[in-house]
Amino acid sequence: MTTDLIVFLTLSLVAIATALGMVFSRNAVYSALFLVLNFVTVAVFYLLLGAPFIAMSQVTVYGGAIMVLFLFVIMLLGADSISSTSDLPWQKPLAFTLALVLVVESVYLIVSRAQPNLGITAPDASLNTMDSLHQMALELFSKYLLPFEVTSILLLVAMVGAIVLTKQKKAGQGS
Amino acid sequence: MNTVPVDYYVLLSAVLFTIGAMGVLIRRNPLIIFMSIELMLNAANLVFVAYASVFKSFSGQIFVFFVIAVAAAEVAVGLALIVQIFKAKKNINIDELNSLKG
Question: CA separation (Å) from A128 to A54, A136, B60?
C-alpha cells in the first residue's frame, strides 16, 4: 500500500458515501451540503492527478457558485422536504434494479479490459509548478481558442436567458 | 513508487455516475434531480482528468474546464425554469408537472 493508494481509497469511500447521502437524505438542504463535500473530495482527486488549476476551478465554480445558487433556490422555494411518495409504486424497485445492472455492466467492462500497466504516477515536481499552468494556458488560448470564445457566448446567452425567464411581467402586458 | 492504477479512477467514476443516475430515477424533487445530474457530470470529469494525467496531455483538463463552464450555464437556466414553474404551479413535485402549458 503506497501513500497515494491509501489517500485514494479513503477519499473514494468519502466520495461514494456523500453521493449516497445526497441521493437519500430527506431534506434538500442536507443533500446540497453532501454534494458540496462530494465536490471538494473530487477536487482533491484532481490534485492527486496533478491538475491543480482544475481542482481550484472545481472548488470555486462548483463548490462555491453553483451550490450557493442551489441553496438559494431551495430556501427561496421552501422546497426542502417534498414527500417522496410516488404515483408509480414499481418505480423505486425498478430504478434500483436498473442502477444495479448499470454498475455491474460498467464494472465488468472496465475490469475485463483493464490495462494494469497504465498506472498514474504521482505528479512530479514539474507538473505542480507554474510551468504546467503556463503550458495549459498556451494550449487553451491557441489550439482551443475558438471553443473558449464560444463558451463565453454560451455563458452570456445563459445569463440573458435566466434574467428573461425570471423577469416580472408588467401589469398591462397580460398574464 | 507512488502509483494508483487508472482503472481505479474509472471504477470510482462508474460508481458515482450510477449513483447519480439512480438519484434521477428515484427522487421526486427536481432540485435533487438537478444535483444528481451535476454528480454525473463530475464523474465524467474525473475520467477526463485521470486519462489526461496518464497521457500527460492538457486536452483532457481543458475539456473539463469547458464542461464546468457549460454546467454553470445549465444550472443558471435550469434553476430559473424551476423558479418559474414553482410560481405558476405552487408545487414542484415532478409527478404533477405533466403539461407544457403553464
Answer: 12, 12, 16
Residue of B nearest to A127 (CA): B56
| CATH class given for the domain over B6-96 | mainly alpha
pLDDT of B1 above 70: no
A57 vs B20, B65, B80: nearest CB = B65
SS (H, E, C) chain A: CCHHHHHHHHHHHHHHHHHHHHHHCCCHHHHHHHHHHHHHHHHHHHHHCCCHHHHHHHHHHHHHHHHHHHHHHHHHHCCCCCCCCCCCCCHHHHHHHHHHHHHHHHHHHHHHCCCCCCEEECCCHHHHCHHHHHHHHHHHHHCCHHHHHHHHHHHHHHHHHHHHHHCCCCHHHCC
At the topology level of CATH, where does A1-79 sit?
Four Helix Bundle (Hemerythrin (Met), subunit A) (1.20.120)
B80 CB within 8 Å of a chain A CB:
yes
B39-90 tens-digit pLDDT: 999 999 999 998 888 888 888 899 999 999 999 999 999 999 888 888 887 7
**How far apart are alpha carbons B43 and B15 in whole angstroms?**
8
Quick check: A23 and B80 CB within 8 A? no
